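thread: overnight batch results

M.L. [08:02]
morning all. the overnight job finished for the chain we discussed friday. pasting input first so we're all looking at the same thing
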Amino acid sequence: MEKNFTPTQYFTFFIATDEYAIEILRVREIITYDFLTRVPKTPLWIKGVINLRGRVVPVIDLALKFGLAESKPTKWTCIVIVENYYEQEQTLLGIMVDYVNQVVDFSSDDIENVPDFGVKIKLNYLLGMGKVGKKFVLILDIVKILSEEELVIINQLPDSKTFIEPVEEIQENQEVENQQENNHNNN
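M.L. [08:03]
and the structure it wrote out:
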């Protein structure tokens, strides 16, 4: 694999014990892990969809996608909303991460080729390995994380007109349950 990257800022995050990075210009926003609506008959690595200001955004578990153990939500779990493209059209995708870390500047000298051994994920997902101090960060190629067939599956998920009401209803029910629990705890 030859070096194929642009020296720029990268956003880093952890999945299990491994640190990954994606180009910061691909990151739209970071939100706390909250309600997900599971969509039947989708691959396990598609955790569900969220309602992001009226837009249905699929959320994937990169750990499962990479063949690692499923990520279990904690108080540090976040969903990183990234821009991707399908048939030359911009789409949003949520990536479930164990926790976010930092933004780093990688120059050409900071990036190394990916070795042919010891990497837990397919090499075509990676642009390179960025040096941060004494360790390396795996730099993901966000466009290559999903195959063409997988993008088709994601883009066939129900649109926002189909899903907004159930998502909002679940959120309202959860708010009522939280309020009832708080009232119960105060009594």
